[in-house]
Amino acid sequence: MLACYVNSSDMEAALGFFNRIPRKDAASWNTMITGLARNQRMEEAGKLFSAMPSRNVVTWNAMISGYAPVKSVVAWTAVITGHMKLGSIETAEKLFWEMPEKNLVTWNTMISGYVENSRAEAGVKLFKKMMAGGVSPNPSTLSSVLLGCSELSSLQLGKQVHQLVCKSPLHIDTTAGTSLISMYCKCGALEDAKKLFVEMPRRDLVTWNAMISGYAQHGAGELALSLFDGMRKAGISPDGITFVAVLLACNHAGLLDLGTDYFNSMRKDYGVEPKPDHYSCMVDLLSRAGKLDEAVDLIKKSPFKPHPAIYGTLLGACRIHKNTKIAEFAAKNLLDLDPTSAAAYVQLANVYAATNKWNDVARVRQLMNRSNVVKTPGYSWIDVKNIVHEFRSGDRIHPHLGSIHEKLNELEEKMKLAGYVPDLECALHDVGEAEKKQLLLRHSEKLAIAYGLMKLPPGVPIRVFKNLRICADCHRAAKCISEIEKREIIVRDTTRFHHFKDGSCSCRDYW
Q1: Residue 150's Cα: distance from chain center in Å?
Q2: H helical segments located in 118-173
Q3: What ranges cover the PPR repeats (predicted)?
Q4: Is the dihedral of CA 206, 211, 212, 213 positive or negative?
Q5: pLDDT tens, 425-465?
Q6: In the chain, where the domains are located
Q7: 477 FRET partner, CA 20 to 30 A, in 40, 164, 307, 386?
Q8: Start-to-end Cα distance in the chain
Q9: Phi, psi of 45, rounded to the nearest 5 degrees
Q10: Mapping DSSP to helix (H, G, I), strand (E, B) and coil, where does residue 370 land?
């Protein structure tokens, strides 16, 4: 009966029944504590854990899992209802090291807890300790650690994990193979992902989705849609995640009509109900194509309450198309949903700056200051010999800054000769032309690219990662540098990958 109450998440009934048990065995304690932890009622779980006469590995694992939850609906519901507070990963960490005996589930729980709670580096380090201790991983372990590699953009470590998989029975495991495909895609190594996908002996829906999503994220829209056709011919039915990838592929390739057809066919031809993510993709697709009024109409017709990302997408497009009216509409709605959104203020100010409305820029910045909203600083990073080097625009901290500036000045002269002209609209400050050019030359992407050119051997692609969208001037400069230096440059921003080679970009200047 206790298990029935727990399985149905009726924790009040479960606690009542548990308290009435005269002689509680280990199974009863395990069931009750596991149930409370699963439902994020950690205060009550902790009290029972302390009172438990004899703890075993199952109960320890349940407690660690409860304190290091994945960001699920259950976890967030528990936060909202007051059963849990964020930031309890430290408690999980403490329990983990206190635990007298650990099994594979323990290690997996802690590694995934680190990765899911934005501590990917700690998760990867723990994986290395686990391997050094002679504990063999399973697909769940590899899935978590590869996700950590993706979060850290650590391609070299991901390749080391791949070698480990190849030497173990997991080399034919579909879940492990799919995790590797996803890692390669997210770390910018699309060809490695494609090779692995082709060689996999078995593929499931998740595998197909991972590869289609990878193509979409890298701007290879035609390849993504071709693979989607191949998936259907193989008898695999698409799901909602598949269509997010398909719409994203259409979005990045500018295939407005085709994307609209796929969106309209979801329910009719495949029985897949459109969800908020699909509407977001369509709003993005319409907005990028300049169909801003149609994007607003779709938001208003959506059966779902709009979430902040939709208005953020609309705002970003308003800057490209210099539409202040719709930008004001999007910013107002975004702030109504999230009054602390820095993106609303920053993006609106950027739209005004792009149209030279500097008084409005100053007004928005004053509103932002009065609201105590802090802008997320833009930065870029690059991995050189397994050391991550981070740069901010106008960086003054990096130890090799002098050499980097020399390299950028050298590049600037070569770029001018090649016909490069700075895009001054990307310098969102009301200053003179010379100062704008200097500000643009010190953008974080350019600093990272220059450092990569200095430190990585000839022929090795330069992989740069950015926490915001790449600006138009850095995009223009990266194309020019790729031709001058005869080097492939790969930049991942918040929306996609850009592959710069021989003076061109894989996005075909549509992003």
Answers
A1: 9
A2: 120-132, 139-152, 155-166
A3: 25-59, 72-102, 103-137, 173-203, 204-238
A4: positive
A5: 666 666 677 888 888 888 999 999 999 999 999 989 999 99
A6: 380-505
A7: 386
A8: 57
A9: -60, -40
A10: helix
